[in-house]
Write the structure tokens for this entry.
Amino acid sequence: MKPTDQDRDTLAWRLRLTMERRTRLRITSIGAIDVRKEDRPAYLREHHRRRKEDERRANGVKPRTEYLAAVKAKEPWVALGISRATWYRRGKPGLETGPQTRKKERQRYAAPRLTDHPPQVAPKRWRSRAKAKD
């Protein structure tokens, strides 16, 4: 015969079983004298949530607020006043510092000069025909 909820709570009262002791001893079939039956599921959910959070902290996981603050600090496009897409399109400018980097940036976005391109040379087969006609 299966005991009823009333029997379980009565047994908890006779044993003076508190929720803390019940949890520590991993007793799940008997109630607790300090937490009502209706409140037990919410209490256990909160207990498990806190325990999991403590485990995550022990493993080195940061709280969400700290994580988001660290991510916001790593948004260099905001500091440069440009959009994220523009920042990536430009090849992540502003990450390096120093005069050489600024020179590279100027060269990268400067209009191409005609002297930068190699001279146009006709293919060899065309040149040989031109000499043959002469």
Summary: Residues 5-61 form one domain. The mean pLDDT is 79. The chain is about 60% helix and 0% strand. Residues 20 and 26 are 10 Å apart (CA to CA).
